[in-house]
């Protein structure tokens, strides 16, 4: 029997001992939900080859776990986009920085995203992909932050709906860090600035 890990204390972030990550979704819950999503996807498309496209880099972890849980014919590809802005706020301007290796024409494509936030990235990708004439185009997002949405896009498959908090882990980064944490957690940045002196 698999050992159940109970984690009540925050996971100290390895990159910076001072930052703390409060676990929001444990690795066990993530894996359980991915198994359910995979089952649902195959149930919806029982006999079809499915072409999974991950949006680099955050979605790679989700793609590899999801792909291994979907039985039958699966192919994978990658695309990369960059959104201009700082690391916790996306600006809405999206640029394609790495294109697909193979054509998606006539394929049943599932765009695999780590998180739907404002939806600007997904809106852009859906527009680009639609022009390439896939047979079907669907979206699987591990996390959904509907409270931040600026567009009408929605995912066909959602792992977890979460509140408006900046999360890291399981592929999600803060300035390229914390992707390797197996849980999804809320990042608490602890700054070095001294506390303001209390007035007497
Ligand atoms: P959107 O275009 O605003 O929907 O943002 C999508 C991208 O922003 C995701 O693929 C992530 O790379 C990044 N992002 C949005 N929210 C978070 C978060 O809470 N943590 C880490 N990255 C995030
Ligand atoms: Mg990112």
Protein described:
Helix 1 packs across helix 2. This protein has 200 residues and is α/β, with parallel strands linked by helices. It has helices at 27-44, 60-69, 120-130, and strands at residues 11-12, 20-25, 50-56, 74-83, 94-98, 108-116, 136-144, 157-161, 167-168, 184-188. Bound molecules: inosinic acid and magnesium ion. Magnesium ion binds at residues 58, 173.
| Poorly predicted regions | 1-9
| Secondary structure category | alpha/beta
- How large, in whole angstroms, is the Cα Rg? 18 Å
The kinds of small molecule bound in this structure are:
inosinic acid, magnesium ion
Mean residue pLDDT? 88
Distance between the termini: 60 Å
Strand order of the largest sheet: 5-4-3-6-7-8
Report the strand count.
10
Strand content: 25-35%
**Silhouette:** globular
Residues in helices, as a percent range: 10-25%
Please describe the biggest sheet, giving its number of strands, its sense, and whether it closes into a barrel. 6 strands, mixed
Number of helices: 3
Give the tags.
200 residues, alpha/beta, six-stranded mixed beta sheet, four-stranded antiparallel beta sheet, globular, binds inosinic acid, binds magnesium ion
Write a compact overview of the structure shown.
The chain has 3 helices and 10 strands, in the order E-E-H-E-H-E-E-E-H-E-E-E-E.
Topology readout:
Layout: E1 11-12, E2 20-25, H1 27-44, E3 50-56, H2 60-69, E4 74-83, E5 94-98, E6 108-116, H3 120-130, E7 136-144, E8 157-161, E9 167-168, E10 184-188
Parallel strand pairs: 3-4, 3-6, 6-7, 7-8
Antiparallel strand pairs: 1-2, 2-10, 4-5, 9-10
Helix pairs in contact: 1-2
The protein binds inosinic acid and magnesium ion.
């Amino acid at each position: 029997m698999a050992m159940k890990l109970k984690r009540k204390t925050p996971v100290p972030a390895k990159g910076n001992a001072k930052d703390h990550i409060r676990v929001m979704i444990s690795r066990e819950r993530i894996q359980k939900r991915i198994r359910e999503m995979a089952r649902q996807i195959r149930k919806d498309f029982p006999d079809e080859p499915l072409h999974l496209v991950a949006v680099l880099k955050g979605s790679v972890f989700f793609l590899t776990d999801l792909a291994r849980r979907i039985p039958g014919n699966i192919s994978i590809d990658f695309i990369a986009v960059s959104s201009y802005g700082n690391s916790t706020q996306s600006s809405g301007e999206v640029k394609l920085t790495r294109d697909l290796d193979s054509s998606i024409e006539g394929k049943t494509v599932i765009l695999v995203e780590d998180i739907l936030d404002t939806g600007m990235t997904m809106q852009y990708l859906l527009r680009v992909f639609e022009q390439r004439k896939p047979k079907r185009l669907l979206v699987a997002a591990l996390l959904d932050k509907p409270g931040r949405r600026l567009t009408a896009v929605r995912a066909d498959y959602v792992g977890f709906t979460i509140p408006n908090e900046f999360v890291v882990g399981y592929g999600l980064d803060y300035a390229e860090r914390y992707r390797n944490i197996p849980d999804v957690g809320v990042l608490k940045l602890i700054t070095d600035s001294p506390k303001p002196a209390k007035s007497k």
